[in-house]
Amino acid sequence: MEKMTVTFQLSLATIHHQFYSHSMIIVCVCVYVCLCLLPGGFISTVCCLILKLVSFQNVGAINFFCNYEESRGNYLVDVDGNRMLDVYTQISSIPIGYNHPALLKLMANPNNLSTFVNRPALGILPPENFPDKLTESLLSVAPSGMTRVQTMACGSCSNENAYKAMFIWYRNKERGHNIPSDEDISTCMINQAPGCPDLSILSFMGGFHGRTMGCLATTHSKAIHKLDVPSFDWPIAPFPRLQYPLEEFTRENAQEEARCLEEVEDLIVKWRQKGKPVAGIVIEPIQAEGGDNHASPNFFRSLRNIARKHGCAFHVDEVQTGGGCTGKFWAHEHWGTDDPADIVSFSKKLLTGGYYHKDELQADKAYRIFNTWMGDPSKNLFLAEVLNVIRRENLLEEVTRSGKALLNGLYELQAQYPGILSRARGQGTFCAIDICDDATRNSILLKARDKGVLLGGCGDRSIRFRPALVFKEYHVHLFLNIFNDVLAQHK
Amino acid sequence: MEKMTVTFQLSLATIHHQFYSHSMIIVCVCVYVCLCLLPGGFISTVCCLILKLVSFQNVGAINFFCNYEESRGNYLVDVDGNRMLDVYTQISSIPIGYNHPALLKLMANPNNLSTFVNRPALGILPPENFPDKLTESLLSVAPSGMTRVQTMACGSCSNENAYKAMFIWYRNKERGHNIPSDEDISTCMINQAPGCPDLSILSFMGGFHGRTMGCLATTHSKAIHKLDVPSFDWPIAPFPRLQYPLEEFTRENAQEEARCLEEVEDLIVKWRQKGKPVAGIVIEPIQAEGGDNHASPNFFRSLRNIARKHGCAFHVDEVQTGGGCTGKFWAHEHWGTDDPADIVSFSKKLLTGGYYHKDELQADKAYRIFNTWMGDPSKNLFLAEVLNVIRRENLLEEVTRSGKALLNGLYELQAQYPGILSRARGQGTFCAIDICDDATRNSILLKARDKGVLLGGCGDRSIRFRPALVFKEYHVHLFLNIFNDVLAQHK
């Protein structure tokens, strides 16, 4: 790194929790003014910016400030001009790298201006090109068996509304598709059953599905996400804890998966007896925030069958796995089934949130799944172009190639540094590796950044790799060399 | 209307609920193809588009498709070229009209390109100009007593996260700001108390705060919003049912407000005894979706005091009232107090969602209020420019002037058509009037549209007026004339 910004910034981040009271904010502003008056060069722009922001926001999670204008492809540039190979891509949400020429060109087209300037209420007054743009973008990559899609503004809203769709579907089934009773109508207004029924969603320990209150009841990744927020008494199943590489432990892993599937069935029965039947099961194809936990195609196919057997909807959350990073457009395509799910939600690399669903999961009336914006057509515009680039540049093949090189490189490093690394795993470039402990993990993340590589953590002590789809074999080797240097320092 | 689109489109909307099965979709596509092959002119573009969309989305709420390129200022143009005076503005979310030159100019500035093309994870890697853009935009209109702001992608996410901030604040108080216990940490992972505590938010009958599951537990506007979705057992207070014009019924209205305030205190006590203490109270300054229900400044000041007395946070939801439409930037400014709230949430006319909060409502740790995008800097860019326009063109004064003309006009029409109209009410241009019954209301909305005025309903039988801030007295008179014509047909 050209300037000694990171350490100072991190220490600020750790003390920022003190900055609550007005007096502390005044102290903070004074420090900021003093620092900015010092001769330039010593105190970095990053420090000045963080001291500005701390007066009106929590900055505890800020890594640094970026110069997005100067960032290109796989390289993120910070405000001090440091250029980093980005293997984290804004928590896995930049599909084809920074400032891709195709997206810049789209912005230069005057025909697109109006889409950015006039954001419509899509549910009531969509623009003329809305059906075509959906067809070009989201519908052109619809999961198998799904012809319907609903856009939403972010990942959490997508899952919240997918859950609602499952509840509505389940209750309509229970009612025999008759109109709701007067009691349904009157009780729902005051949050009581039967109008607001005691239904549940079954989720998995280690899962992450967002942070709004419905989603949060199915999120079980870290305590900090959930602490102090009221929740629902919904069933939580164990997610298989597999041994890696998967192909070397097939027998042990199959046993572990069978144990989890059995527990799922038990929970469904138990919650039905409790009077809180499971309307839907939600799962990630690879648990991401929870520590990059994989399961076999057979596990997911069996789970899908269990859902069908017990009359629960099956919701696959592809917010982090979707968009090509596993080498297929959707991670569930690796399961080898034509009927992977009833609902598939997405966001991040898709640039818009939303969910696909089967015909029967369509709410039976307008205004049941609804809000003011229901997405943003300007994001559909970008997505259509991103998909063009993915096809034109065969990026899924690139991901498969780069992913193989990355995973092989991780295996080699793991053999070389057995005291530090373990459990290398991945699909496409969606890879991860465990570090011996949390402190070493964090030290490695910082040292890598000092050497020009931006990485992210997940779970208790994993590093996750989330490059853009334009991350080539060349970038893999660049990364592996630097990672090797960092590890050598820790040996 | 130039073409006979609306009636046909509406009939389609009513039958669309049948279009669930694959076979019905095939029928629908066949109808679409046949219609499109007919000689042009008879079947409108709108019909063709809706038949396209019905194959992959619920279209029951679609009014028509728009040509946003050709829309200007207060005038929305549909795909058939019909030009309508827009008094609804995308459910109150277009602040300064369609295609405002200032926003088009902003798009033409190449320095802004990168902000649109590279959406950052704002919570970890904000752009260099992020603190300055927040200062120029949201912080320049911060409510009294609030110096901190958190952006979010939409109104529901804003309220969800505001609720979380209140829960976190409340539990930290309860813990004496000590670190959470091991039991807190372990129980929260499985959705159980004390980690996921039995806290509640007090809301009001008729209120609307969004449709994700936390928000929805505080929404009590229409059954269709809530039916079949599990909810929380949270207290719901009556919202004053006042008589209009407010100044003619001060004594009766004060009594009604006192009754509601008493009930609020009773509920707070009752829910504390139930073991589900009220962490926060949420209310709209004018209940919008619920039927444009007003209350007096004294009511809100008293409620704010009740919240303080009982140790509850006070959350004012300005998603629909914020942004200038009441003649002040925030509707709560009409209350005449320096300390209106602990949290104020916004979205719609602010173009980005989010909430302001007092210092003490700041979450004590990073990653407690967090998600991937945490808003969208491109929306802050637009908002800064919108605020410039509001100041430069004195739009709040314009709104006050137009609002007076509008309300006076509604009073006159109400006197003229006492069998149809009643309860004209409003603040700024945020006005409404009741129609004798639901069927007449809907017929009036359709007839107004046929005559080139786009209006929206709210509550059981109200019409709400939600023009942009550029709606001048000239437009008021234009609207009143047409409205008069429509009413004359119903007399």
From TrEMBL, chains A, B:
For this entry, list what GO says about its biological process.
gamma-aminobutyric acid catabolic process
Which GO molecular function terms does the record list?
A: (S)-3-amino-2-methylpropionate transaminase activity; 4-aminobutyrate:2-oxoglutarate transaminase activity; pyridoxal phosphate binding
Summary of the function given for this chain in its UniProt record: Catalyzes the conversion of gamma-aminobutyrate and L-beta-aminoisobutyrate to succinate semialdehyde and methylmalonate semialdehyde, respectively. Can also convert delta-aminovalerate and beta-alanine.
Gene3D superfamilies noted in UniProt: Aspartate Aminotransferase, domain 1, Type I PLP-dependent aspartate aminotransferase-like (Major domain)
EC main class here is transferase
**What family is it from?**
Belongs to the class-III pyridoxal-phosphate-dependent aminotransferase family.
Source species taxonomy: Eukaryota, Metazoa, Chordata, Craniata, Vertebrata
Instruction: State whether it acts alone or in a complex, and with which partners, per the record.
Output: Homodimer; disulfide-linked.
Transmembrane regions: 20-51
Spell out the GO cellular component terms annotated for this protein, sorted alphabetically and separated by semicolons.
mitochondrion
Q: What is this protein called?
A: 4-aminobutyrate aminotransferase, mitochondrial
Question: Which organism is this protein's natural source?
Answer: Lates calcarifer
Q: What are its E.C. numbers?
A: 2.6.1.19, 2.6.1.22
Give me the gene this protein comes from: ABAT
Q: Which cofactor does it need?
A: pyridoxal 5'-phosphate
Keyword Transferase appears in the UniProt entry: yes
As its record notes, the protein acts as a catalyst of: (S)-3-amino-2-methylpropanoate + 2-oxoglutarate = 2-methyl-3-oxopropanoate + L-glutamate; 4-aminobutanoate + 2-oxoglutarate = succinate semialdehyde + L-glutamate
Which UniProt keywords are given for this protein, alphabetically ordered? Aminotransferase, Membrane, Neurotransmitter degradation, Pyridoxal phosphate, Transferase, Transmembrane, Transmembrane helix
Domain of life of the native organism: Eukaryota
